[in-house]
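Suppose you are handed only these lines of text.
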Amino acid sequence: MGSTPNFASAPGTPPAAAARGVGVSFGGLRALDAIDIEVTPGAIVGIIGPNGAGKTTLFDCLSGFLPCEGRVWVAGKDVTGLPPHGRAAAGLGRSFQDARLFHTMTVLDTLRVASELHLKGAGVLPSLLSLPSSRAAERRATETALELIDLLGLGGFRDKLIRELSTGTRRIVDLGCVLAQDPSVVLLDEPSSGIAQRETEALGPLLRRLRDRTGCAMLLIEHDMPLLMGLAERVYALEAGKQIAEGTPEEVVNHPEVIRSYLGADASAINRSDAEPAAEAEPPRARPRPQAKPTARKPAPRTAVPRKAAPRKPAPRKPAAVDTTGARAKPASARGPRKPKE
Ligand SMILES: Nc1ncnc2c1ncn2[C@@H]1O[C@H](COP(=O)(O)OP(=O)(O)OP(=O)(O)O)[C@@H](O)[C@H]1O
Ligand SMILES: [Mg+2]
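From them, the structure of the protein bound to magnesium ion can be written out as follows.
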């Protein structure tokens, strides 16, 4: 397998996830080329890029769903040759662009089953024989599920069926199923896609709280720039399978290649912001979001580039909470056509 490279993480602390030289081709299409990624323990790291940049393909490679070139480590363990379940056992959790849950199960049961899968002593045989190990595992699974419900702010949905939930709330339950596996890093593919505006606004504080409470690192693909800017410590930008920028969110949104390939029409806003002293910059999360929804294949990301402080008060925000209405205000198509996959 070769030697372990020098990671940027503190000496003696392996990154929660790392990859070197990841590449994959689909026929003649070079979907990913020589991608290097590193997620330090407990960090929230963003991935941005236009549609088709290779973001989801990168997640497929990291999580072992797609054979690829390069090497992948999870919590310091070289998982390059391991299948998805081996990588999950090493500590890598993944949520998908579309949450796939059983619609006729309750939230509690869904999280209980997810928790039980992770526990020793659970399983068909111990359960059929009603062994003490099975009953103890069931009790622990229920406890874990209830803790997750509390952590995720899902108390009001505990006994609701999955089909009764909004897309955003379903996605939170899906995230709970991933967290039930006690991962050291979670890959989140566009958690805000297709969910209501206020669910998106609740997502940032929720993800940060999850990270703070569990210590779990997050690698986050996101087109919603205010969300990402408010969360991520580092960002990688991809375009056409290539890594075109890496750095702090501010460095990346001001990177000329990122402006050219992704932020597009918002480049003028970025350039304008360059003239403003940093101290005058309005905090990303307090800024109104552009109303226009992208319709073309290339998304117009909702930008959070610094502009001069507006002399108005920001609108009061509700505390972070999962949408309780089941509303689906923002269709997935709002960011342009997407291919079904995964
Ligand atoms: N299984 C596949 N077979 C062939 N081509 C694929 C496959 N999966 C992805 N691709 C192609 O690889 C490229 C990268 O796709 P990918 O889904 O990773 O992009 P993305 O950055 O996630 O885009 P989006 O923002 O739309 O989700 C695209 O050109 C896509 O059409
Ligand atoms: Mg994708």
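What can we learn from it? Residues 26, 29, 31, 49, 51-57, 338 surround adenosine-5'-triphosphate (ligand 1) (CB under 6 Å). The two ends are 29 Å apart (CA to CA).
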